[in-house]
Design a protein that fits this description.
- This protein is of the alpha/beta class and 353 residues long.
- It folds into three domains: 103 residues, Nucleotidyltransferase, domain 5 (2-Layer Sandwich); 89 residues; 138 residues, no CATH class.
- It is built from twelve helices and nine strands.
- Helix 2 links the parallel strand 4 and strand 5.
- Helix 6 packs across helix 8 and helix 11 packs across helix 12.
- The longest helix has 32 residues.
Length: 353
């Protein structure tokens, strides 16, 4: 439509480069504005007609989406990994917004999902918890490396006990190393307090979500996994089927085929044998893959999923492939129950197909 406008933004820390096309696909404007909420809001409000807006997923994408989405007819946060047109030819901010606005006009952008405000607090708290857990693990690894590098043996996690730190520090004869280890013990003690606090805040926020009671019925999914699931997925209705959900979770099998059709006795027929597999898809949400792989590992040794796993082994699947299949099963059940608001029924765990 001639009254439509297709606006692309290239967002940076200090400035935003903007390119705009009209309903016929012609460039009609360029601008550079400051990366400030009021400046961007005023610019978008000043545009006439039906505005379609896009910018790439990045650090400021969530903030920008919440700020500008209510002001336009359509707002697409696009996946930069799929914007191949931007990688060809010359590279500059002006060229990028021209190409991005062209992709928007042609309807060739792949959107990155940005949820509603209802789970935004939980998303931030889940991210904070995961970051602190990673920091805690990093400090533990550094502390462990000190003792291992000096041939000091230990059992499991006993060297991380803050109350026993003097005993372990006494085995370090070098003053500089001893002081470094002491600092790591102090960091570890503080991080463990922060991790516990972040976990509590995340769980408290997750209890406000209706989906929590449904998902916590599923064996092998603990309250932390459920909180992270809700924070990541937001709504199960993003996914039309379990296969789409498997792809998002990194559990989709990738096949490469060629020459799918052949002539037999003068008739065109599709080859019955499927193409060879190339493993699982590589573009996925790492948090969800970790959750479902962990759930499958637990389910393979105890609970109602164990007989299902054993039937997979009996069919001749190796343990690694059987665990992947079990992870897919748990993910499919999670999506189904979440969509229907149903209860988990272990009697419906049918035999492998």
């Amino acid at each position: 439509m001639t009254n439509d406008k297709y606006v692309a933004m290239d967002v940076h820390k200090a400035s935003v480069v903007i390119g705009m096309r009209n309903g016929e696909g012609k460039m009609i404007g360029r601008a550079v504005v400051e990366t400030k909420a009021q400046t961007l809001r005023d610019y978008v409000k000043g545009l006439s007609g039906t505005v379609h807006l896009t910018f790439e997923e990045g650090t400021q994408a969530a903030w920008l989406y919440d700020l500008l989405q209510p002001l336009v007819a359509a707002c697409i946060v696009c996946d930069p990994r799929r914007n191949k047109l931007l990688e060809s030819g010359n590279k500059s901010d002006e060229v990028d917004v021209e190409k991005l606005s062209e992709l928007l006009y042609l309807g060739r952008l792949r959107a990155v999902y940005h949820g509603a405000q209802g789970t935004r607090a939980l998303k931030e708290l889940a991210q904070s918890y995961e970051a602190l857990v990673k920091d805690n693990t990093r400090v533990k690894n550094r502390l462990k490396a000190i003792f291992r590098g000096r041939g000091i043996s230990y059992e499991a996690g006993e060297i991380y006990d803050y109350e026993q730190r003097e005993q372990w520090l006494g085995q370090l004869s070098e003053r500089g190393v001893s002081e470094r280890a002491r600092q790591l013990y102090e960091q570890l003690a503080q991080l463990e307090e922060w991790v516990a606090s972040a976990r509590l805040q995340m769980l408290r926020e997750s209890r406000k979500q209706k989906a929590r009671k449904i998902l916590e019925q599923i064996p092998t999914l603990g309250e932390i996994s459920v909180a992270q699931l809700i924070a990541t997925v937001d709504t199960p209705f993003r996914f039309r089927s379990k296969r789409q959900f498997w792809t998002y979770c990194g559990l989709a099998v990738v096949r490469h085929t060629s020459a799918d059709y052949q002539f037999e006795q003068g008739e065109l027929r599709r080859r019955a044998k499927p193409g060879p597999t190339r493993g699982l898809n590589r573009n996925y949400n790492r948090r969800l893959k970790r959750i479902f792989k962990s759930a499958a590992q637990t389910g393979s040794v105890k609970g109602p999923f164990k007989p299902y796993y054993e039937r997979l082994l009996a069919r001749g699947l190796n343990p690694e492939l059987a665990q992947v299949t079990l992870a897919r099963k748990i993910a499919a059940i999670t999506l189904t129950l979440w969509k229907k608001g149903a209860s988990f029924d272990r009697e419906k765990l049918v035999k492998p197909e």
